[in-house]
Backbone:
């Protein structure tokens, strides 16, 4: 027997309204401004006997503790929503806020220093107006809760249409040399260069969502590459997903929800290491270190 499919979608701005420390590098960065908003994008689907809620976030990562914190908020606000069916994911931008007490990467790396060498952290003064995790975390959690509850409330008769396309976004970021060593973001401009360690996945999986009267509601877009074109900058940015959303909305309207999913891209980065140095001289190739080519 056919079951009716109900779907609701939403997109809510989760950008903190203050400077923040940015997550994703070994050093402390304080945001100067927001280049583009960070979004929580939600797809909520329900049949007669099951449900699925996908929530993708323009953040570096999302862990179980934070996921459960948001689920607890959702349970209070939207008691008919099955919180165990909510799945959170992140686009892995490196220009989003530190919203939880992080284990710093340098602290982990320090465990592997040679004997007799130790890591010493230098103190850095953070201005009072900068939002730290104790303010960022609760704010972002509330906004995500709102996005999920809105999508759930909007669910109605809908249909889906899967599709597929290709766009070269990710490239392997590990360079292999003739001594069999490999280095992340290593230079390929040496006689010792042999190859990139892996390939790339240019496939883009798509699922379009249509509501009543076949009105386009949104699309789920799976790209096997983190959003890290501007990963070292000192501003808040949703990176290439922000630019992609703007272009799609310009064609389909501001209510159209682009739910960006970061696919399996553990060794991928949006820059071509083979042609890195010549990139800015080539007008036909997008800028790998900015958003003008996104």
Residues:
């Amino acid at each position: 027997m056919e079951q009716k499919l109900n779907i609701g979608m939403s997109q809510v701005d989760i950008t903190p309204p203050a400077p923040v420390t940015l997550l994703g590098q070994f050093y402390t960065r304080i945001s100067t401004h927001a280049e583009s908003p960070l979004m929580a994008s939600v797809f909520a689907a329900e049949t007669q006997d099951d449900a699925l809620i996908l929530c993708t976030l323009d953040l570096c990562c999302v862990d179980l503790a934070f996921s459960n914190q948001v689920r607890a908020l959702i349970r209070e606000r939207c008691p008919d929503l099955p919180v165990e069916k909510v799945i959170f994911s992140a686009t892995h931008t490196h220009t989003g806020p530190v919203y939880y007490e992080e284990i710093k990467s340098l602290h982990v790396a320090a465990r592997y220093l040679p004997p007799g060498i130790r890591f010493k952290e230098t103190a850095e003064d953070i201005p009072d107006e900068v939002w730290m995790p104790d303010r960022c975390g609760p704010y972002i959690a509330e906004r995500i809760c709102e996005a999920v509850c809105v999508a759930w409330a909007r669910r109605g008769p809908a249909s889906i249409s899967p599709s597929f396309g290709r766009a070269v976004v990710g490239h392997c970021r590990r360079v292999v040399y003739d001594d069999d060593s490999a280095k992340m973001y290593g230079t390929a401009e040496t006689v010792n260069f042999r190859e990139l360690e892996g390939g790339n996945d240019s496939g883009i999986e798509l699922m379009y969502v249509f509501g009543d009267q076949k009105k386009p509601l949104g699309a789920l877009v799976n790209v096997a590459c983190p959003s890290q074109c501007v990963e070292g900058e000192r501003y808040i940015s949703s990176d290439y997903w922000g630019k992609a959303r703007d272009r799609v909305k310009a064609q389909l309207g501001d209510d159209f929800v682009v739910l960006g999913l970061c696919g399996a891209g553990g060794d991928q980065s949006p820059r071509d290491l083979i042609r890195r140095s010549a990139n800015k001289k080539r007008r036909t190739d997008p800028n790998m270190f900015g958003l003008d080519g996104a």
